[in-house]
Specification:
heterodimer, A: alpha/beta, B: elongated
């Protein structure tokens, strides 16, 4: 029996996990839809990895419940493991095995039938552009290439659901970009991807996002929805005496955030107020000239900072 | 020279303080070594389990046996009749020596003839041979001199022939060649070292590199993981046995008196026990280095207490109890029995029971520790 298309691939209900006194995850209830790229955002130690581990069935929750690919995460953990792919920032490859040996090993572990193993490994090598490096030892690959191999290993059994725990940590920008192209390809093939990150530009690339802070779920939605809910307006200002200007603006009522970006100040204002007008009002009184000002789109980063500030 | 080295030393100390396992081992190692060397290592082998074959059953023959027991070197473990019984007991390790007092012992002594008392010694352990033989030789010589004085006093005149003589008979490895004695023991020690270390390191490596986490997320079950990991090591273990036996036979001319298939069959239990120990260590060790340290830590009592270096009989009681819990102790008896004495399955049954019991305990213990869920 196949689940109806509307049935979410992940559903959690008040999922919680304590380690002794510490509550790593508290009452997280969320749904991930089939085929989407779902990002879990949060600072280090917020509970992202703990959440993913519970969803993978390798860590029992201490409260609440959840189903992943139609199976209960406590009772049917072993069934879940067959149907998910998992990749961490550590790129858990056997460094003393070659690329093709690593892939063949994971194909075997994940039960790709013996007869189809070679064909599947060749196919993945082709798709990921690894064919020319198939004989190279994984330990001698650069970070970006290791990441490709790790992703290829995690998807060797064509799982319907792929977990990526900070998959791009410590990888150069070009490799990250290529990695995301690959994620979109995999997603287009019908695979759901759930990933954690603290790169905000990556968050913008997700279909939907969950914000986790201090173990609690603060918001879930598309990047646009999440940003819109903060009711922020943002302007980029070119001003004289930028440091003084920033101090003045921070002290002004309704200002969420002032940040330096090179020669430009980035001003975020709460409750839909006009940031350009506010800047001119505040700074004109102190004799600081605003040479240029233009309103710009609020980003996920702006929303994230606002949420963390509000909660802290 | 800058003082940067102090900064580094400070950092090392900080790290060390957090590495409790290494600290504990560094503290325990000298203490344990001291205890082992201080107490267990005593090359005088006392309390040699000894059989008595008294074919005379006279007051004089009983007196000789009593005198032997009084030295503290011989513990009487039973009475036997005939060479066949003696050999069987020595093969299974129930006894290490036997005194044979000939019929007409008392009568011949009274008649002034020279009487030969035989001491049959298990030659598979040279230190036992040494102690058993030298004690008996001096005892018999002293008794003989005593008798001679008595006889001279009674009869008068010249001293007659030596009344008592000891005729030692060393079974197994009669030439007392070191290679013959060392080789079978080495099989056990090398297997212990490599099997424990390989298993402990193999899993610690996975943990260190993060691949264990990857495996835990996969559908691989713990039993599959463990069996898959240790199977190659079982093969390595057998290759090692074959290599040592082959090499010893070609280079040192060490013969194998018993059945090689029996040795290989019984070795399985021993190899499995060592792999279980390695597995247990791997559940404790976070790094390969820790795994290595623990393996060496384990090796030391094995070498000192198992009977590889010093005879079991030479150790004080508490050390002997400890020794009984080591798989190597029992495997050494098995391998020496088969290679040197030609022991068969019946001779070694009790050692096999011990080994199997240890193995079962280890497997239960390791599986309890080896949980797949928690990272």
């Amino acid at each position: 029996m196949t689940a109806p298309a509307e049935e979410p691939i992940i559903r959690t209900d008040h999922l919680s996990r304590r380690f002794g006194e510490l509550v790593a995850v508290r009452d997280v209830s969320l749904e991930v839809r089939r085929g989407e790229i779902f990002g879990i955002l949060g600072p280090n130690g917020a509970g992202k990895s703990t959440t993913i581990r519970m969803l993978c069935g390798i860590l029992d929750p201490t409260g609440g419940s959840g189903t992943v690919v139609g199976h209960d995460i406590v009772r049917d953990a072993e069934r879940i493991k067959e149907r998910i792919g998992y990749m961490t920032q550590r790129f858990s490859l056997y460094e003393d095995l070659s690329v093709v040996e690593n892939l063949t090993f994971y194909a075997g572990i994940y039960g790709v039938p013996f007869g189809r193993r070679r064909a599947r490994v060749d196919q993945v090598l082709e798709q990921t552009g690894l064919t020319s490096r198939r004989r190279q030892l994984a330990g001698t690959l650069s970070g970006g290439w290791k990441q490709r191999v790790a992703l290829a290993c995690a998807t060797i059994h064509q799982p319907p659901l792929l977990f990526l725990d900070e998959p791009t940590a410590g990888v150069d920008p070009v490799s990250r970009r290529e990695f995301w192209e690959r994620i979109y390809e995999i997603s287009a093939g019908g695979t759901t991807a759930v990933l954690t990150t603290h790169y905000m530009d990556e968050a913008e690339r997700c279909h939907r996002l969950a914000f986790i802070f201090r173990g609690e779920l603060l918001d879930v939605g598309t990047p646009d929805e999440v940003v819109a809910r903060r009711e922020l307006r943002v302007a980029e200002l070119e001003v004289e005496r930028a440091s003084d200007a920033a101090a003045l603006l921070r002290a002004a009522p309704g200002v969420e955030e002032v940040a330096h970006y090179g020669h430009v100040l980035r001003l975020a204002v709460r409750d839909g107020a006009d940031p350009v007008a506010l800047a001119r009002d505040v700074l004109a009184g102190k004799g600081i000239a605003v040479r240029g000002a233009r309103e710009t789109r609020a980003t996920v980063e702006d929303a994230f900072v606002a949420m963390v500030r509000a909660d802290a | 020279m800058s003082l940067r080295f102090l900064v580094i030393a400070w950092k090392e100390l900080l790290q060390l303080r957090r590495d409790r396992l290494t600290l504990a081992m560094m503290a325990a190692l000298p203490i344990i070594q001291l205890l082992l060397f201080g107490y267990a290592i005593n090359t005088d082998v006392r309390h040699i389990p000894t059989l008595v074959d008294d074919q005379d059953r006279s007051a004089e023959s009983r007196d000789l046996v009593r005198r032997m027991e009084a030295t503290g070197f011989y513990d009487r473990v039973g009475e036997v009749h005939g060479y066949g019984d003696i050999e069987r007991a020595l093969r299974s390790g129930v006894a290490r020596a036997a005194v044979v007092i000939p019929p007409r012992y008392a009568a011949d002594l009274a008649g002034g003839a020279t009487v030969q008392v035989q001491l049959v010694i298990d030659g598979s352990d040279p230190q036992i041979v040494g102690s058993a033989q030298s004690t008996a030789v001096s005892l018999v010589a002293a008794r003989s001199a005593e008798m001679r004085v008595e006889r001279t006093a009674r009869v008068g005149g010249r001293a007659g022939p030596e009344p008592l003589e000891l005729s030692p008979d060393i079974l197994y490895n009669p030439d007392q060649r070191t290679a013959v004695f060392i080789v079978p023991g080495l099989i056990g020690v090398i297997l212990t070292m490599t099997m424990v270390m390989l298993t402990a390191m193999a899993l610690a490596r996975e943990r260190e590199r993060g691949t264990l986490e990857q495996l835990i997320v996969s559908p691989v079950r713990p039993v599959e993981l463990v069996v898959g990991k240790i199977l190659p090591f079982v093969v390595i273990g057998y290759v090692q046995i074959a290599l040592i036996l082959g090499f010893a036979s070609v280079v040192f001319g060490v013969p194998v008196h018993g059945s090689v298939p029996l040795l290989f069959a019984l070795a399985f239990v021993f190899i499995a026990a060592n792999l279980a120990i390695g597995l247990f260590f791997s559940t404790l060790a976070k790094t390969q280095q820790q795994a290595m340290q623990m393996s060496f830590f384990f090796l030391l009592p094995n070498i000192l207490l198992s009977g590889f270096m010093f005879p079991f009989e030479a150790m004080p009681r508490p050390a002997q109890w400890l020794s009984q819990g080591l798989p190597l102790t029992h495997f050494l008896r098995i391998v020496r029995g088969i290679v040197l004495k030609g022991s068969d399955f019946d001779d070694l049954r009790s050692e096999l029971v011990w080994l199997t019991a240890i193995l079962l305990a280890l497997v239960v213990f390791s599986s309890l520790r080896f949980r797949k869920k928690l990272l």
